[in-house]
UniProtKB/TrEMBL annotation:
InterPro entries per the UniProt record, alphabetical: AN11006-like (IPR038883), F-box_dom (IPR001810)
Source organism superkingdom: Eukaryota
Region annotation Disordered: where it falls in the sequence: 1-41, 134-178
Compositional bias (Pro residues): 20-37
Domain F-box: 88-204
Protein name: F-box domain-containing protein
Bias-annotated ranges (Basic and acidic residues): 136-154
PANTHER family: F-BOX DOMAIN-CONTAINING PROTEIN
Amino acid sequence: MMDFKRPATPPPLGDALPAPSTPGGPLPKTVIPPSPGGPRFGSLAPTLKRSAKLQAVTDAAKRSLTVGVKKPMFKAARASLDILKVNNKAAEEKKKIGLLDLPGEIRNIIYSFTHSNKKQALLVHRPRLASLRPRTKLDRTRPLRSDLAEKEQAKVVPIPDTDSSSISRGGKRRRESPTLCRETNRPFFGLTQVCRQLRTEFRPLYMLNQEIGLDLGEVVKYLKTCYYDALQHLNVLSPYEDRKVDMPFTGNFTIAIGDKIRKFEMATDGVDVFPFLSIWANSYKIEAGFGRYVNAPYDATGDGEAKDLYRLFGRVVQQNRQCSGMNPAWRAILRARSLAAVRIHRKPASRAAAPLASSLVASRPYIHIIFRRDAAESWMDREMSMIPLGWLEKRGFGNMEYFEVKVGVESA
């Protein structure tokens, strides 16, 4: 008989694979390679390090993360989360560039684009009925024509042939067309109300295009309201010969002359317009002129009163309704603040035709230019002095059509 022997298991070789690990048990030991920056020969010896124990996440554990009542967050964790959100929001805002973040030169270019739109409404200071002058108490309670026209313009314009509809109270559908709002006649006005910096930068440029209508008798009141700090600027101005910077005022004004002369215009002192002339001559850029309250066609070429009043701004209205250049002598008088008053007498008191005559003769309307005593010339000895020949022509008051010009010095 043959002798059968059970085969023996050979011993494990040196390069044999290790036995498989038991599921759920510890993982085999891992050999950590030497560090690249460590000693070359000392690190060749293998070092042993036990790896982290893997834990399988069960279905019950996963379910516990999504169901149940969440525990309230601690105050410290909530505060840190709020701080993180604030920091992230601040970082996002830093990335945005606003108008005020741009250089001043670029902002001026943006402001200049607003001048391309010439459509601008005329703002009337204290508008009144018809000729803009109050007559009776009943007239002051009636609505103005401008108010009625504004209400008509404010009505929206319907667009026909639309499919939009709405349900009325009875449940029936009724067709309702969308509306189109009218465009504003004061574009870019909102930029003057955004913030103090934009108002300071943009408002002077905006006021150059914004024409404002004033009544001749309301000029001084308007200046006290809207240019209340003008007197402070005037007091600190340097002499006009050495002046480099004028007052930072801009504007575009039309001073209206009424057809009917009011009681205060017939007063002994007349209407003093020197405060307005002083601000006009010493400001950065203020454009001004005279006009009429008109409803019928108006012939400006034949209006000698308005044309003569333009002489107060140093200009002469020519036949083609164009203004001449600025008179330097008259402008120098205004910039030097040599005057005490410039009074307009549209209807002065009547005077006697002769010392013993009983009849009265209407005096011609005149403009009274009154100098301060420290700036008066040698020939100015009283309020109505004898004017030397050629003095008025040199200062732009020659060949007046409607007014007479009188010059003098203020009373002591």
